[in-house]
Q: What sequence folds into this?
């Protein structure tokens, strides 16, 4: 078995990884097995630099708040603000504190400084404004969309009517609603009316796209469409929060990845003429297979953003999963994929999943000591385009 694994592996390099990817990609998903371990965003930075310099990539998108990401993009694209401000305002989930994310923005800004705007690298988040303790309210996105349209169209709703329907933001962001659907306002009469209003505003944005783009800019229209996607996605998510059904959490997991998939599709559409996009997130958000998770004793399963994106981009999406061997006292058993990969003589390796046939079906899924780490399922390696293995992490 070890000899076969060595035949499937080579030392990590950007070129080694690129050699396993199919041609014609517009979106490359790079997953990480756990958050908060710098080895994986550092690896991402190395891969992104290679893709930019050798494969024509011009954008990167992260599992981070899509609205917050506008601040980081403004910094790397046009030098607006400071690096510290871009990190503090441009990320969610605490990712702005990551040294690797600081280095990513610093390098992107330095790369862009001497290039014309059409050739500059772009940054975005593709997650919704969804933190652990609950989603943001739809107000900021919905009012920004309304204000953009009101500057050019006669709307049947005033800003005052919109504000009255929204009410105070605290109604939407009550942390108790995360676990108690009765505390959510997502199915109130006002919320239902807001869902119709948001849908109508988005239709106006679409039907008047030629005039609006000419009067403003392509970037301004795209930003307004981001507000529209975010507002409608958040209102759907809040409706799911208010659902008392036993399937509530499973529905919310699927709704979050649907928001991610919509954002990925929009990013690919915007970037199509400039080059492919690298997307970086947890493996479970980018894999092609149905995602599985145990939550409070309940088995959850939903289709990931990567799986949805793959159906929208036939032949243009690839997924690379990352995993690791040893972390402190957590050593993978020898009959797991990570255990077998640990026999490789490389600190970091690129694995060709196509050469794991006959090996993976002899292996068991790893049960890690750390519940925040989601191990690769050996049975699904045939759906991967490549695996990057890191032997030891801190």
A:
């Amino acid at each position: 078995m070890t000899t076969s694994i060595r035949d499937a592996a080579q030392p990590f390099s950007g070129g080694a990884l690129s050699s396993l990817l199919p041609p014609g990609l517009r979106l490359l998903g790079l997953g990480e097995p756990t958050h908060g371990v710098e080895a994986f965003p550092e690896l991402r930075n190395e891969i992104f630099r290679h893709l930019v310099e050798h494969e024509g990539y011009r954008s990167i998108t992260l599992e981070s708040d899509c609205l917050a990401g506008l601040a980081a993009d403004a910094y790397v694209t046009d030098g607006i603000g400071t690096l510290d401000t871009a990190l503090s305002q441009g990320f969610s989930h605490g990712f702005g504190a990551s040294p690797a994310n600081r280095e990513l923005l610093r390098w992107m800004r330095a790369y862009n400084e001497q290039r014309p705007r059409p050739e500059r690298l772009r940054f975005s988040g593709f997650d919704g404004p969804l933190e652990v303790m609950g989603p943001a309210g739809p107000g900021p996105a919905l009012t920004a969309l309304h204000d953009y349209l009101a500057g050019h169209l006669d709307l049947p709703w005033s800003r005052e009517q919109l504000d009255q329907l929204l009410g105070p933001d605290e109604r939407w962001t009550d942390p108790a609603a995360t676990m108690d659907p009765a505390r959510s306002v997502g199915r109130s009469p006002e919320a239902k009316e807001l869902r119709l209003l948001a849908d109508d505003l988005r239709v106006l944005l679409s039907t008047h796209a030629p005039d609006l783009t000419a009067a403003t800019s392509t970037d301004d229209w795209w930003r307004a469409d981001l507000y529209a996607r975010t507002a409608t996605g958040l209102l759907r998510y809040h409706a799911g929060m208010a659902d008392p059904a036993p399937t509530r959490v499973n529905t919310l997991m699927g709704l979050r990845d649907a928001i991610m998939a919509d954002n990925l599709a929009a990013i690919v559409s915007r970037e199509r003429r400039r080059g492919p996009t690298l997307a970086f997130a947890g493996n479970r958000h980018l894999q092609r297979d149905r995602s599985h998770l145990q939550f409070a004793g309940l088995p959850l399963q939903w289709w990931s953003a990567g799986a949805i994106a793959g159906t929208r981009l036939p032949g243009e999406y690839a997924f690379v999963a990352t995993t690791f061997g040893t972390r402190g006292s957590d050593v993978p058993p020898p009959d797991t994929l990570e255990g077998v990969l640990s026999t490789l003589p490389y600190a970091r390796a690129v694995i060709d999943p196509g050469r794991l046939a006959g090996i993976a079906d002899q292996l068991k899924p790893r049960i890690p000591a750390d519940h925040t780490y989601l191990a690769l399922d050996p049975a699904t390696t045939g759906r991967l385009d490549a695996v990057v293995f890191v032997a030891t992490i801190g």
Q: What stands out?
A: Residues 2-131+261-393 form a domain with the Rossmann fold fold (CATH 3.40.50.11550). The chain has two domains: 2-131+261-393, 138-171+185-241.
